[in-house]
Design goal:
disordered N terminus; alpha+beta; 35% strand
Length: 270
């Protein structure tokens, strides 16, 4: 009887060993091999190149060929899984969220979302340009003066329906375009500014599929801090996001349906 039980246990162990998937969940006690440690270091550098902090992620799994899959729990508790690799000089991120999968490629001149290219806007020479969720100096209650000449409208045609995207992929792409003067701003800042409004935009598209298309548009109004001067200018930026081909005119009733987003833009000499 003991021999039969031992044989059964050995057979079961062999079956389990053959059924292990290509990805194995990494426990907190996991010790990396030398090759895995080298790959993790390469991933850390690649993430930093596009403004992502690897310390915000958990190692979810490692494939047999040392591809890491990272778990990212966003501030709104939505979980995404991310893989990263380099292709020549480009950095490619794969985002997974339930049944959704997006591919974002960062290049020196812009970013690709599913092979559609969105270029960066060259930064002004000899000046630093920063974006933040709260004012880098001054106070949110200070006086800001509206600058109508700076009003911006941006229209983005997406490769597919807006509702089909992960919020992290849209944050990566919209952030690279909206914050074009500094497209690799830290993920914490980018997501603090964009994650909630873009998540709301996606959710609206999911709930109202008849009104959702392959479009994302937004407009930005600039308000300059009263103490700004030529060497150091600070703006409060008020953006509205729409799931339509073009931003509605301010006189259009649909303009008030835009999803709001406020952030700060500083432009100064170093």
């Amino acid at each position: 009887m003991k021999k039969k039980l031992l044989s059964l246990l050995l057979a079961l162990a062999m079956c389990l060993s053959l059924s292990v998937s290509a990805f194995a969940t990494v426990s907190p006690q996991h010790i990396m091999t030398s090759a895995q440690a080298q790959q993790y270091e390469a991933d850390t550098i690649a993430f930093a190149e596009v403004g992502w902090d690897i310390n915000l992620f958990e190692i979810y799994s490692i494939s047999d060929d040392n591809v890491f899959r990272y778990k990212y729990t966003m501030p709104n508790n939505v979980v995404n899984y991310i893989e990263i690799h380099c292709s020549g000089n480009d950095i490619v991120l794969d985002f997974y969220e339930e049944q959704k999968h997006d591919v974002v490629r960062f290049t020196d001149t812009g970013v690709y979302l599913d092979d559609v290219f969105y270029p960066y806007t060259p930064a002004t020479r000899a000046r630093c340009e920063e974006y933040s969720y709260s004012p880098p100096w001054g106070n949110v209650n200070d006086t800001y003066i509206y600058r109508p000449s700076m009003y911006e409208i941006h229209n983005m045609t997406l490769p597919r329906n807006l509702a089909s995207y992960t919020a992290t992929a849209l944050c990566a792409v919209v952030g690279a375009v909206l914050f074009a003067a500094n497209p690799t701003i830290p993920i914490a800042i980018r997501n603090a500014i964009l994650l909630n409004p873009l998540s709301d935009l996606i959710e609206s598209a999911v709930e109202h599929p008849l009104y959702s298309g392959a479009y994302l548009s937004y407009c930005v109004e600039y308000y300059e801090h009263e103490d700004s001067y030529s060497l150091d200018r600070l703006y409060r930026c008020e953006a509205l996001f729409f799931s339509c081909e073009e931003c509605p005119d301010k006189s259009d009733p649909d303009y008030s349906e835009g999803i709001p987003c406020t952030y700060y833009y500083r432009n100064y000499f170093f």
